[in-house]
Amino acid sequence: MEPALCNNCHRTTDIEVRESINVALDPELKARVKDGSLFVWECPYCGRRNLAVYQTLYHDPDARLMVWLLPGEAEPPAQVADAVKELEGYTLRLVREVGELVEKVNIHDAGLEDTILEMVKWVTRRELEAKNPEAAGAALKFMRLDGADHEMVFAFPLNGQMQLINVGFNVYEDARGILQRNPSVRPAEGFARVDKDWIEQFFR
Ligand SMILES: [Zn+2]
Predict the structure, then answer these.
(1) Separation of 13 CA from ligand 1 center, angstroms?
(2) What does the pLDDT look like over 95-149, one tens digit per residue?
(3) From ligand 1's centre to the CA of 43, what distance in Å?
(4) How many whole angstroms from 21 Cα to the centroid of ligand 1?
């Protein structure tokens, strides 16, 4: 348990904090990560539902996926880099927000690679921006694959509302080709951030 501050009434409550989430040991936790409910707590004083902010390690051993949620600008301790060298064939990711963790799990569940999806998002942001300058730099989140053609569905905020956009799977295949031709475009060793800032190091 850790004290948490309510956003509404500013009173403090002890909330349950999970330092790790192993979805092989606790399969029902995966659904609660994906719908975000695992990170929501209700204030006993005023009823406000708040988002819990704490660090946790999401581990799916069957999928060989570890996503470390480290809120804010915190960096992982140096000794972790050595510990994860043992983990052959794992995808190791570092994220700052619950929404990013959920997206990583959704990407993995869809059988896609997040590096390629960041390239897809980069292309899609440019197309959105060309149609509507207010969409410049839109924070696109992958939601799911849709229909027989496996269109990629992304959500993004625009003028205070959530919008959805479908992107053809051919864009994913093109992006995969671009990354294959550019082997220097790859994540850092160990727990790596793969996000908008990452792809923009390589493509401007
Ligand atoms: Zn409250």
Answers:
(1) 9
(2) 999 999 999 999 999 999 999 999 999 999 999 999 999 888 889 999 999 999 9
(3) 5
(4) 26
50 CA distance to ligand 1 middle (Å): 9
pTM exceeds cut of 0.70: yes
Q: What is the pLDDT of residue 86?
A: 73
**Token pair for 153:** 């569905």
User: What's the 157 CA to ligand 1 centre distance in angstroms?
Assistant: 27
Are the CB atoms for 106 and 34 separated by under 8 Å? Answer: yes
- Asked if 101 and 69 count as a contact pair (C-beta separation under 8 A), the reply is yes
Closest among 38, 58, 60 to 49, alpha carbons compared:
38
- Cα 39 to ligand 1 centroid, rounded to whole Å: 16
Q: How far does residue 42's CA lie from ligand 1's centre (Å)? A: 8
Query: What does the alpha-carbon distance between residue 155 and residue 85 come to, in Å, rounded to a whole number?
Result: 34
Retrieve residue 174's tokens: 């093109």
Give, in order, the Cα–Cα distances in Å from 7 to each of 2, 49, 84, 98, 101. 16, 9, 36, 17, 22
More confident residue, 34 or 80: 34
Q: How far is the CA of 3 from the centre of ligand 1 (A)?
A: 13
By the 8 A CB rule, do 114 and 194 touch?
yes
